[in-house]
Amino acid sequence: MTVRELGPDLALNRGGDGNLPSGPPLWRRAASARTRDLAWTTLSPPLLAAVPGAAPARWPAGTLAAWQRWLETADPAALPATIDELADGHPLSADDSSHDPASRSLRLGRHAERLLHFALRHMQGLSLLAANVPVRRAGRQGIRTLGELDFVWRELASGEVVHWEMAAKFYLMAGTQPLPRLQDFVGPNLVDRLGDKLGHVVHRQLPLGRTSEAQALLGHAIDRSEVYLLGWLFYRDGQVPAGLDALGIAPDHLNGWWSSLDGWMARAASRPVSRWCRLPRSGWLSGAFVPEAGTEEVEALHALLAQRFADPRHDHGWRREAPVMLCELEPAGPQAPGWWRECSRGFVVPPGWEARALARAAEEPRPGPRAAPDDAA
């Protein structure tokens, strides 16, 4: 299988729109975690340039450029709280409190939805009509919930009504086929697969907008239904295979690496000037920005991970079996002395994970939708 090695910072220097300024993107360079997360949710590149059986999300012309200009100077205090702030009891903003009860959810996917909801309420060129709308159908056995419409908005220039289904996902490529498949991309906890997720969105979620029940709720028909899929894809030791364009994967998608513990140590040894840190799930969206005190020595981090993967407690299987996200850091520059900024990220996987991932990738799709609660969406 033909592969190509990406440099450690290549993916992190891609913007999400050809009309946006060049250079490090806002979701990487902003000092505020609130700004970085909101910028990542709206300005980072999508995972897919083409969606089998559907269409990728399309913004109105000029909307993202105007939004970035606003976000560049926005007061972070007026932006949605981060997951860590919500976990610490930070109050919801007025925009959050008008959202559904999941506003306080600490799940990464719900956080991304909360951020996109905020953006759609404030962007130029569109008007948000509805968010998180449950669609129900009455039958002989009572009322049944068919699903939920994530976002419905109107493009002001054309008047078109657009339905978006949104997800923020993180997949590691585990396949060894000559040509990659969507099923080869598995979630770190092996519950979710990219192919299954797309099948669920395309065949179960997008058609909800065309039902008579949805149209009755909204008061009008939907002109376009699209997939708003963001996230990161991770490749064995950073080796990105050829043929991804045939799967619809965007050429500028955000990507990282996954390695065994020894493989990561070899990577760290080849980058002696870098620093490292563990990246908690709450920080998986945007680029990390870490004070020097928050970085970790390579040897100590290696010992900690080795101990974790060998945890003998019978009730700590999740610690032994779950990959750990690490972040490689470089100096943030003279404007932020003593701070370190992300330059690559990846998963260190425990012994046996790769074999389990290959087995999961080889499984046939199960009949019916299979949502994945553990991998962020």
Description:
By secondary structure, the protein is of the alpha+beta class. The protein has 2 domains: 3-256, no CATH class; 259-356, no CATH class. Helix content is 28%, strand content 24%. It has 12 helices and 12 strands. The protein has helices spanning 26-29, 33-43, 63-73, 83-87, 94-97, 108-122, 194-205, 212-218, 261-269, 298-309, 317-321, 353-362; strands at residues 3-5, 126-139, 142-155, 161-173, 185-186, 224-236, 239-241, 255-259, 275-278, 289-291, 324-331, 339-348. The strands form 2 sheets. Strands 2, 3, 4, 5, 6, 8, 9, 10, 11 and 12 form a 10-stranded mixed β-sheet that branches. A two-stranded antiparallel ribbon has the order 1-7. A hairpin with a 7-residue loop joins β11 (324-331) and β12. α2 (33-43) packs antiparallel against α3 and α2 (33-43) crosses α6. The relative contact order is 0.16. The model is unreliable at 1-18, 97-101 and 369-377 (pLDDT under 50).
H-E order: EHHHHHHEEEEHHEEEHEEHHEEH
Which class of secondary structure composition applies to the elements?
A: alpha+beta
Which residue ranges are poorly predicted, with pLDDT under 50 across at least 5 consecutive positions?
A: 1-18, 97-101, 369-377
In total, the number of domains comes to: 2
Spatial gap, N to C terminus: 30 Å
The percentage helix is 25-40%
Number of strands: 12
Q: How does the overall form come out from the CA principal axes?
A: globular
CA gyration radius, whole angstroms: 21 Å
Average pLDDT, all residues? 87
Q: What characterizes the major β-sheet?
A: 10 strands, mixed
- Beta-strand percentage range: 15-25%
